[in-house]
Design brief:
Order of helices and strands of chain B: HHEEHHHHEHEEHHHHEHHHH
Distance between the termini of chain A: 30 Å
Order of helices and strands of chain A: HEHEHEHEEHEHEHEHEHEHEEH
Distance between the termini of chain B: 17 Å
Structural class of chain A: alpha/beta
Number of domains of chain B: 1
Shape of chain A: elongated
Strand order of the largest sheet of chain A: 2-1-3-4-5-11
Helix content of chain A: 40-55%
Number of domains of chain A: 2
Helix content of chain B: over 70%
Number of helices of chain B: 15
Radius of gyration of chain B: 21 Å
Radius of gyration of chain A: 21 Å
CATH superfamily of the largest domain in chain A: Response regulator
Number of helices of chain A: 11
Oligomer: heterodimer
Number of strands of chain B: 6
Chain lengths: ~325, ~325
């Protein structure tokens, strides 16, 4: 077992997924509005469920508004929250621009606004803080895992990229490349887009396997999200190879199905994009309300590595009902 | 007789397919290598057949629709709906045949709905089928409740990843469907009727063709084909992905039909050539994957190839080619 996976176990023991610190008692009984983008992906559904769970555990009355992917709906919802006189507003902004006016209205009403998982192009005094993941770091964690896993052995990696030109694809690629830079034994030999989907992940992996001597020349596959990794695992199996053993599988997101694959020994590592953006947001809000301490304008969530040593079956059970 | 046969083989679609395959072979020397593994054929060419099957199946129905001067934009969304129906039903414990038949029936119903809008309400096809293109994905998400519904039903998975005589099941289904539909339209008068509606619907009706009935049936066929494709795609990844299943495939299907030489203005059509068109598209996709181009070039390479293929079919090039053909014919009898 590598040092990194030992660290990961320690980290996973230290924090449960939806742990709530008891220190935030001053939030009890408050009313908080939450303007969610909509249900665009399983991860977003999970974020909504986790936010609701967090609010319930803290005794916060959460007013939930689904914007159905439209900014005007979000602005309407925020204005509604201001009119109701809520104590704080959580927003997962659908786009980056066009928020100045409505944020200024909230500021005037002295209602703190906290941004979840995406930033906005607005002066940062208009909101309390933004809670986001660092997608470059996610790629780097996956890369560091591979570096630790293969040691000095040569490793030819194939990469399944996200949608060409999308921010997660660019950042997760850059982070992984940073991690393996300086380790000449690890090289990315093929890189293609799988559009973040299972079907394309499977198709692209099939092509890679044919192109790399029936898969014999591939040491590991790095997928920018778990869904593509799940597709790749099927392609590896169809080619008569053992995913997780013959070809190592590393990916990002931490959706339930990758934990199921990990429990079956078919995936080796995933870096969690935590759906718990609300936890750090509530913590920041609690401190701010208690003594007026302004939090950092950018709170980066943890990018936690999970390997088969981290009780994948348990992680699967914990997540399967979150809406992924 | 023999000369006629050769000329038919030398049509631009088959030439283009051979050209694309040869380019793939130049870029990746093992392209034509086929091995036998776990009781089935294994190789890049087999991948082309397998991965090209869903679009080929869509193209079969789409050809008939386009021949009537229509278009069916909803096939991608119908795929998502039918995949969702099949997946949720097997997960709910229904026997596989029931789930598959239900999914096919839903596809048929979607097609009938399109046909009703086009033939009975006389809504323009592009608008009529746009309704289901947009709404269908929403319906699919309602069925799956936003999850990717995964299943482990061996019989259903077999439809997507199984093999028959070593060939991938999806390709076998596409081939059988192509033969059946081609026989149906070529060995009966239905093909002529479809063509007549595409050329001039009013005149066809006056000539005694039940054009309304026939239009409904053509859209129903397209919906049915989309259902088959949707089941295959879901079975392939062992899950119904309402967001992504069949996304933009309606455009690939239309492209396959156009590459196959069927005019968007209706009339003359060829189902086998549309299937060849689908294989050309897939051969390009697979070629890009094995060649190692960076993904930023995918669309540029594809667009360039498609422009070339369509240029080969343009009337101007046809005239020039015809000129050369006449020349060789005059020189031939020695």
């Amino acid at each position: 077992m590598t040092i990194i996976s030992k660290l990961a176990i320690a980290a996973s023991l230290a924090t449960a997924l939806t742990s709530v610190s008891i220190a935030q008692e001053n939030l009890q009984g408050l009313t908080v509005g939450f303007s969610q983008i909509g249900s665009e992906s399983g991860w977003r559904a999970a974020e909504t469920s986790v936010t609701k769970q967090q609010a319930e555990a803290l005794g916060v009355d959460l007013k939930f508004a689904d914007a159905q992917q439209k900014q005007e709906n979000q602005i309407k919802a925020i204005r509604g929250f201001i009119a109701q006189g809520v104590d704080a507003i959580l927003v997962a902004p659908v786009v980056a621009t066009g928020w100045d006016d409505v944020l200024a209205e909230a500021k005037e009403a002295e209602i703190p606004v906290l941004l979840l998982d995406r930033g906005v192009d607005a002066p940062d005094d208009l909101y309390l803080t933004a809670v986001m993941s660092d997608q470059i770091l996610e790629g780097r964690v996956a890369g560091d895992w591979l570096v630790g896993e293969v040691g000095d052995a040569d490793c030819r990696v194939v990469e399944l990229q996200g949608t060409v030109g999308s921010t997660p694809a660019i950042d997760r690629k850059a982070g992984f490349e940073q991690a393996i830079a300086g380790h000449d034994n690890i090289t990315i030999v093929r890189s293609q887009t799988g559009d973040f989907t299972r079907a394309k992940g499977k198709e692209v992996m099939e092509g890679f396997i044919k192109a790399e001597n029936g898969g014999a020349d591939i040491c590991a596959v790095y997928a920018h999200n778990d869904d593509m990794a799940v597709g790749a695992i099927q392609a590896i199996k169809d080619a008569g190879l053992k995913p997780g053993t013959d070809i190592k599988v590393a990916s990002i997101d931490g959706v339930p199905d990758i934990f199921a694959a990990m429990a079956a020994g078919e995936a080796n590592a995933t870096v969690e994009l935590t759906p718990d953006m609300a936890g750090p947001a509530f913590a920041a809000l609690s401190t701010y309300l208690a003594d007026g301490t302004e939090p950092e304008k950018l709170i980066i969530t943890e990018s936690k590595l999970y390997t088969p040593a981290d009780d994948p079956q348990g992680e699967y059970d914990r997540r399967k009902d979150l809406g992924y | 007789m023999k000369r006629l046969h050769l000329e038919r083989l030398a049509n631009p679609q088959l030439l283009a397919l051979v050209a694309v395959l040869l380019i793939n072979w130049l870029l990746f020397p093992n392209f034509f290598r086929i091995t036998w593994q776990d009781g089935r054929l294994f190789g890049s060419v087999i991948d082309v057949l397998n991965r090209g099957a869903p679009v080929a199946i869509l193209a079969i129905g789409m050809t008939a629709v386009i021949a009537t001067k229509g278009v069916d934009l909803s096939v991608g969304a119908i795929m998502a709906v039918c995949g969702a129906v099949a997946a949720t039903m097997v997960v709910a414990g229904y026997p596989t045949p029931v789930a598959v038949i239900a999914a096919l029936a839903v596809g048929l119903a979607c097609g009938l709905w399109n046909g009703f809008l086009v033939a009975v309400l006389d809504i323009q096809p592009i608008v009529a089928t746009l309704v289901l293109m947009v709404a269908g994905r929403g319906i699919a998400q309602l069925i799956t409740e936003g999850y990717i519904v995964t299943f482990n039903d061996p019989a259903l998975i077999f439809i997507g990843t199984g093999s028959f005589l070593g060939f991938p099941m999806a390709a076998v289904i596409a081939l059988v469907l192509m033969l059946l539909v081609t026989l149906l339209v070529r060995r009966t008068a239905i093909g002529l009727f479809i063509q007549a509606i595409g050329v001039n619907r009013a005149a066809a009706s006056l000539a005694g063709i039940h054009s309304r009935m026939l239009l409904v049936l053509v859209y129903a066929l397209s919906g049915f084909c989309a259902a088959i494709a949707g089941i295959i795609v879901a079975a392939d990844i062992r899950g119904a992905d309402a967001n992504n299943s069949g996304l933009w495939l309606e455009l690939d299907a239309i492209l396959a039909v156009v590459i196959g030489g069927t005019s968007l203005l209706g009339g003359k059509f060829s189902i086998p050539l549309a299937v060849v068109g689908a294989l050309i598209i897939q051969a390009m996709n697979t070629g890009i994957l094995v060649s190692g181009f960076p993904p930023e070039f995918n669309l540029i390479v594809k667009a360039g190839m498609i422009i070339l293929i369509l240029m080969l079919q343009s009337p101007l090039v046809g005239t020039v080619m015809g000129f050369f053909k006449r020349d060789t014919r005059q020189a031939a009898p020695k």
